[in-house]
Amino acid sequence: MHNEIEKILISEEEIQSKCKELGAQLTEEYEGRFPLAIGVLKGAMPFMGDLLKRVETHLEMDFMDVSSYDGGMRSTGEVKIVKDLDTSVEGRDLIIVEDIIDSGLTLSYLVDLFKYRKAKSIKIVTLLDKPEGRTSHIKADTVGFEVPDEFVVGYGLDYNEKYRNLPYIGILKPEVYGG
Ligand code: PRP
Ligand code: MN
Ligand code: MG
């Protein structure tokens, strides 16, 4: 699997130390409250685990599965709810956890939905931000790393459902996706 990666953009060590740093920030900000952390499946899964284990105050976890990519490299332009939350967001402080913001479509859809459902506050925490990909007007409150406009995989990010289990973020060799 590793020989299909052209280069490592963000190492395992860099990711883990970022999770520690951001976890400490969240601890300070949400101390004494009981936020609802929402992981956006499936990509946010590794980051959600590593980030939230660094938060030293009570929080609740829930998951939502929305999809706009159908496994490929390009957004279909329309967001579908595959699995909704179990919990009501009304009156809650939300922390949305994402692996990457690219076009911004996924998050602008979710933010609108949670506002409509009367969340008290909404904070967006994303490991990666790809500002050049943006078509929707959305900005994360907290960004781990900015990435260039290249197809990145690993640590939750997939290509045709592969590479999510890499412990780092890398760039795929073009021959793997026929480029
Ligand atoms: C990917 C990624 C983000 C979203 C970002 O998810 O994990 O959730 O796309 O792209 P956007 O800003 O252009 O909306 P995807 O829909 O591929 O589902 P997955 O997490 O299950 O891979
Ligand atoms: Mn996703
Ligand atoms: Mg995907």
Automatic annotation (TrEMBL):
Principal localisation: cytoplasm
EC number: 2.4.2.8
Needed cofactors: Mg(2+)
Record Gene3D superfamilies: 3.40.50.2020
Domain Phosphoribosyltransferase positions: 13-159
Pathway it works in: Purine metabolism; IMP biosynthesis via salvage pathway; IMP from hypoxanthine: step 1/1; Purine metabolism; GMP biosynthesis via salvage pathway; GMP from guanine: step 1/1
One Pfam family from the record: Pribosyltran
UniProt-listed GO biological process terms: GMP salvage; guanine salvage; hypoxanthine metabolic process; IMP salvage; purine ribonucleoside salvage
Any one GO molecular-function label of the UniProt entry: hypoxanthine phosphoribosyltransferase activity
InterPro entries hit by this protein: HGPRT, Hxn_phspho_trans, PRTase-like, PRTase_dom
UniProt keyword Glycosyltransferase, yes or no: yes
GO CC annotation: cytosol
UniProt keyword list: Cytoplasm, Glycosyltransferase, Magnesium, Metal-binding, Nucleotide-binding, Purine salvage, Transferase
CDD domains: PRTases_typeI
Catalytic reaction list: IMP + diphosphate = hypoxanthine + 5-phospho-alpha-D-ribose 1-diphosphate; GMP + diphosphate = guanine + 5-phospho-alpha-D-ribose 1-diphosphate
UniProt subcellular location: Cytoplasm
Function summary: Purine salvage pathway enzyme that catalyzes the transfer of the ribosyl-5-phosphate group from 5-phospho-alpha-D-ribose 1-diphosphate (PRPP) to the N9 position of the 6-oxopurines hypoxanthine and guanine to form the corresponding ribonucleotides IMP (inosine 5'-monophosphate) and GMP (guanosine 5'-monophosphate), with the release of PPi.
Family membership noted in the UniProt record: Belongs to the purine/pyrimidine phosphoribosyltransferase family.
Protein known as: Hypoxanthine phosphoribosyltransferase
Record organism: Halobacillus andaensis
Primary gene name: hprT
